[in-house]
Amino acid sequence: MKKGLIALTVVLMALFLFMTAEAGMIQIKNNTGVELVEVFIADSGASDWEEDVLGSNTLPVGDSLTVSSSYSKFDLKVTDGEDALEFYGLDGKAASIVLNGDGTASYP
């Protein structure tokens, strides 16, 4: 019984370390042409957007935001308070992503 508990503990610790190692930092640059007041991120294909990662801050044109993501692919929704742009299937392993005003994203 004790050996089984130790083995289970080791497996759970390894799984935790693997999951936290998978989380990456992604720099998102605003090249949309408008100041962003909301940025939502979600696992690609999820039915709901998660909370606004900007909180009470904004993301001016040309500035960048760094977010942590454990998703291999993710979707992003940004708004200027009136209009929204949505980006789908972004690479969660990329170091940086540039969001363009025409609704495209590029990986510099």
Summarize it:
With 108 residues, the protein is an alpha+beta fold. The chain has a single domain, classed as Immunoglobulin-like (Sandwich). 19% of the residues lie in helices and 39% in strands.
Description of the molecule:
The chain is an alpha+beta fold and 108 residues long. The protein has one domain: Domain of unknown function DUF5300 (Immunoglobulin-like). The protein contains one helix and seven strands, in the order αβββββββ. A four-stranded mixed beta sheet has the order 3-1-6-7, with no helix packed on it. A three-stranded antiparallel beta sheet has the order 2-4-5, with no helix packed on it. β6 and β7 form a beta hairpin. The longest helix is centred in the N-terminal third of the chain and has 21 residues. The radius of gyration is 17 Å and the shape is globular. About 18% of the residues have low confidence.
- Total DSSP helices: 1
**CATH fold label:** Immunoglobulin-like
CATH first level: Mainly Beta
What class would the helix/strand composition place it in? alpha+beta
Strand content: 35-45%
Q: CATH architecture, please? A: Sandwich
Report the order of strands and helices. Answer: HEEEEEEE
Radius of gyration (Å)? 17 Å
| Residue windows where pLDDT falls under 50 for at least 5 positions | 4-22
Can you tell me the overall shape?
Answer: globular
